[in-house]
Amino acid sequence: MKTKLMENRCKFWVPKKSRFCANSPLQNSLFCGNHTPRTNNQWIPCPIDPSHSVLQENLGSHLRRCPLVKQVQSLSTQPFYQKGVNAGKEDEQEEPETGIPTSGFDIVTSEMKRNAVYSLNISEFFEMIGKIESVHAQICNDIKDSYKIPEACGVWIKGEVDRNVPFQEKHVAQQASMLGNLEEFGVLERIDGKENCELVERAENSNGVPAVVEFGAGRGYLTQMLADCYGIRRVFLVERKAYKLKADRSLRQKESLILERLRIDIEDLNLNAVESLQRLPYIAIGKHLCGPATDLTLRCCLANERSAEQCGVNCYLRGLAIATCCHHLCQWKHYISNPTFCLYNIYIKIHNIFSS
């Protein structure tokens, strides 16, 4: 009986489990749908969501039922969705060496950047190193390390949090330091005593920060720490992907906190069109914003500031704290201050080497 069952199973060997796949094979095949051998000619990235592939012959039917279709259709009806609003405009600067305009370039991949580095000879390479050190000395000489662990985050630092909340000491220390620096600059205020923690939504009567916008929020545990330690009242989580084990469930259990998750790419977010954020001061935070997401976030917040000045809407940025990552993914077209680079004779070719 057992032998017969084995014959009706997928013939893909699973090394970690030391057995064959338990799924049933497809008709006229030795393998199930997950393990059927693929060829590059048959499978193509889904044009709606490139994170998965589809058989080319099934592309038409797949596009009608792709899980992302409904989300895209729903997002396009939202007032805060504006395609590419924070992508920035590529300035018409010319490369001195080639006279080629720097605008109109496609996304430069990490491999292309590495190839640009490998193409340098020894003298060019050391000249580039010298240029990097020179520019860094001119621009970054006033930047200092600031590692602050505020008393308000003591519960998290000591690990005295709900066991259902994921706890990793490394991430907790990073998050606490971000909040500690915000407190040091007076952007965050520590609230002593729950009975005195009345954070109202109007800026003129606020006793702290009434709104927090977390960009690239992921599961939202940076906001979870903020809510636990600083008594924030209104939260907006901006994230383009869907995650499991989010902090949302824990955050929604706080009676005094209003949570809104915006599933949207930062590049397409018109923050001033988020109705529930209007007439509120806010702080913007983001931990490990990948590649150009930092530039997109800055442009999103600063554009919101300009719009507020023009329209007279009392929705302003009180402070901002971002931890960057994945610098090799940065793109010239997204960088928020290309003219600054050009002042130091850094154009797209050199920028690509800088960010490789």
UniProtKB/TrEMBL annotation:
The keyword Transmembrane helix does not apply. It comes from the Eukaryota. Keywords: Metal-binding, Methyltransferase, S-adenosyl-L-methionine, Transferase, tRNA processing, Zinc, Zinc-finger. InterPro entries: Methyltransferase_TRM13 (IPR007871), SAM-dependent_MTases_sf (IPR029063), Trm13 (IPR039044), TRM13/UPF0224_CHHC_Znf_dom (IPR022776), Znf_CCCH-type_TRM13 (IPR021721). The keyword Transcription regulation does not apply. GO terms for molecular function: tRNA 2'-O-methyltransferase activity; zinc ion binding. Residues 43-70 form the CHHC U11-48K-type domain. GO terms for biological process: tRNA methylation. It holds the Pfam family zf-U11-48K. PANTHER family: TRNA:M(4)X MODIFICATION ENZYME TRM13 HOMOLOG (PTHR12998). This is tRNA:m(4)X modification enzyme TRM13. It comes from Gossypium raimondii.
